[in-house]
Amino acid sequence: DADVTQTPRNRITKTGKRIMLECSQTKGHDRMYWYRQDPGLGLRLIYYSFDVKDINKGEISDGYSVSRQAQAKFSLSLESAIPNQTALYFCATSDRNRDLGDEQFFGPGTRLTVL
Amino acid sequence: AQTVTQSQPEMSVQEAETVTLSCTYDTSESDYYLFWYKQPPSRQMILVIRQEAYKQQNATENRFSVNFQKAAKSFSLKISDSQLGDAAMYFCAYRETSGSRLTFGEGTQLTVNP
């Protein structure tokens, strides 16, 4: 009963291809995030959304775009994939109404390889 | 901009022993949150422990505890009675009180030897 799901879990694509990573959540949270993880760099924020009409760039948004189709769905697109976008991608959610430090809940990750 | 630094790329500990993972951060804010996340080989990110900067008392969760030194901007994680299941990548993370963005450190890979 995964609360935050990501599809696909693994993907291999070629340089120049357009690819979409999808995230869905059943936690009822209003805030959603996309991160990428690279060895030795930790996780870095790509985009985040506080609600359907509020989307913000993170620290490494170049080469990426997002769409918040509904409160429960947040997609990340690579318009023209390049090899240095090979990474592990995480979606996360949080609830602004919680008073416990706004913990973020992570999906299982998508391993993306761009050849 | 806030930065989080984990200076130990790798650590190892014997089963049942205690290990401490280091984390330092840089911020001009006075109120914020600090977190330790665990990432086992399954890749899942799991929250281990949380500390609110305005609380002087160090957070504790069973075998996990932190040493929060606000003036030194240091936030170390102590794992007592280490178990094989503690083997994972550990990430330190920072969040401002007024925002939701997490800033992560580089991670420390912990090995637990039987």
What are the main properties of this structure?
heterodimer, A: 115 residues, mainly beta, 7-stranded mixed beta sheet, 4-stranded antiparallel beta sheet, 0% helix, B: 114 residues, 6-stranded mixed beta sheet
How would you describe what is shown here?
The complex is a heterodimer of chains A (115) and B (114). Chain A is mainly beta and 115 residues long. Chain A contains no helices and eleven strands. In chain A, the strands form two sheets. In chain A, strands 2, 4, 5, 6, 9, 10 and 11 form a seven-stranded mixed β-sheet that branches. In chain A, strands 1-3-8-7 form a four-stranded antiparallel β-sheet, with no helix packed on it. Chain B is globular. Chain B is 0% helix and 54% strand. Chain B is an all-beta fold. The termini of chain B are far apart. In chain B, the strands form three sheets. In chain B, strands 2, 5, 6, 10, 11 and 12 form a six-stranded mixed β-sheet that branches. Chain B has a four-stranded antiparallel β-sheet with strand order 3-9-8-7, with no helix packed on it. The chains are: A mainly beta (115), B mainly beta (114). The A-B interface holds A 31, 33, 35, 40-45, 48, 50, 58, 88, 90, 92, 94, 96, 100-104, 106, 108-109, 111 and B 4, 6, 9, 33, 35, 42-45, 47, 50, 52, 91, 93, 95, 100-107.
Summarize the structure.
With 115 residues, chain A is an all-beta fold. In chain A, 0% of the residues lie in helices and 56% in strands. In chain B, strand 5 and strand 6 form a beta hairpin.
